[in-house]
Amino acid sequence: MDMYMCNFTGWKATAATWSAVLAAFALFAADARAQQRPHVVDGVAAVVNKRVITFSEVRRLVGPAEQAVAQTMQPAEAMQKIKELRLGALNTLIEKQLIIESFNEMGASIPDNIIDERIRSTIVEKFDGDRMAFVRTLAAQGLSIESYRTEIKNTFIVAALEARNVRQSVLISPYRIEQYYSENFKQYMQEDQVDLRIIFISASAFKERRLNAKGVEEEFDPREEQIRAIYDRIVQGESFEDMARDYSEGVMRDRGGHMGWTKRGDISPTLANVAFKLRPGEMSKVIKIADTEMPGYYLLKVDEVKRASVRPLAEVRDEIEGALIQNERLRLRQEWLDSLKVKAYVKMF
Questions:
Q1: CA-CA distance, 74 to 89, in Å (whole number)?
Q2: Taking a C-beta distance cutoff of 8 angstroms, is the pair 287, 228 a contact?
């Protein structure tokens, strides 16, 4: 057990603590995994005591996110979002450095076997045990084994000191929960919902022609006739669910067409206008839709109806408590980080 223990000043981290820290690795090591951008002139983004944080470190941390923003937003909007991402990344790097320096001042250390085990696990889980593939991937990202080890070590340090300095056991009084519910009741309002089943038959790509009862030639879609026959069979007593399993082309076919609780915005306006007028147990007429990604013919059945209401406090109490606990932990974390900043020299450029 001693090999998995690390003595800090007045604090001891056990193997269980390190196991918990391992789970946090993915959240803090993004800057180690992100690709570097070659041929970029570097510069100083910030100074934390004697440690310089460079622009390349910031770019490495937010590179993938920047690419996604550039591909999905208009140029002006993307530029503003990228500025926000870079500022957030810089603050993250500053806070990380402050935590690492605080750890070093304590004279503490991370056992090498903890880092070795993490690397072994990564090679086995992500690279099927192929160490050379792992090394090549690091090289492609501008990282060496040693720099990767440093990132793992720093990740453990951050998670361990956060666990030590940010109280994990936070108590929220019933009064605070009730007060929050009273002040934010609108966010617990539920709109109308229906427990919906759907039978869907796609429209034919080409219409067929036939003579009608008056002897006049007309176009018709055999798929429309198919769903009208299904409708007639249900009216005559056959099960909507069985018909859905046998004939529907919808994604919920195997569940008897059951979509579950559905809001207006979950389905097309045409279907919603029909569905939300049906009573429990009632089936619609055949609905023809031509102007959607899934043109075709629909039958709807509503099993149950929930009218708009506010979720009761008893139902959302745990949800509110969890949110308040998380907010309190974030407040405590920021309070701790602010105390580190007060004692440090930090300058952003």
A1: 22
A2: no
DSSP codes of every residue in 224-259: HHHHHHHHHHHHTT--HHHHHHHH--STTGGGTTEE
> What beta strand segments (E) does the chain contain?
6-8, 11-13, 44-48, 51-54, 189-190, 193-202, 208-211, 217-220, 258-262, 287-289, 296-306, 309-310, 346-348
CB 221 within 8 A of CB 215: no
Angle between helices 112-127 and 145-165 (to 10 degrees): 110
The architecture (CATH level 2) of 2-165 comes to: Orthogonal Bundle (1.10)
Contacts 24+ apart (CB under 8 A), 5-12: 5/111, 6/108, 6/109, 6/110, 6/111, 7/108, 8/106, 8/108, 8/164, 9/106, 9/107, 9/108, 11/164
- Structural contact between residues 297 and 203, judged by C-beta atoms closer than 8 angstroms: yes
Separation of alpha carbons 97 and 94, rounded Å: 5
Length of the chain: 349
- Domain covering 192-307 in this structure, CATH number: 3.10.50.40
> Residue 72: what pLDDT?
86
Boundaries of every domain in the chain: 2-165, 192-307
What are the pLDDT digits (tens) for 220-272?
889 999 999 999 999 999 999 999 999 999 889 999 999 999 999 999 999 99
From CA 332, how far away is CA 326, in angstroms rounded? 10
d(CA 31, CA 38): 16
- Cα separation, 134 vs 119, in Å, equals 10
What proportion of the chain, given as a percentage, has pLDDT over 90? Answer: 69
Task: Report the alpha-carbon distance of residue 222 to residue 172 in Å, rounded.
Answer: 63
- Distance, in Å, from the CA atom of 211 to the CA atom of 216, rounded to the nearest integer, reads 5
Contact between 276 and 304 under an 8 Å Cβ cutoff? The reply is no
According to the model, what pLDDT value does residue 106 have?
A: 92
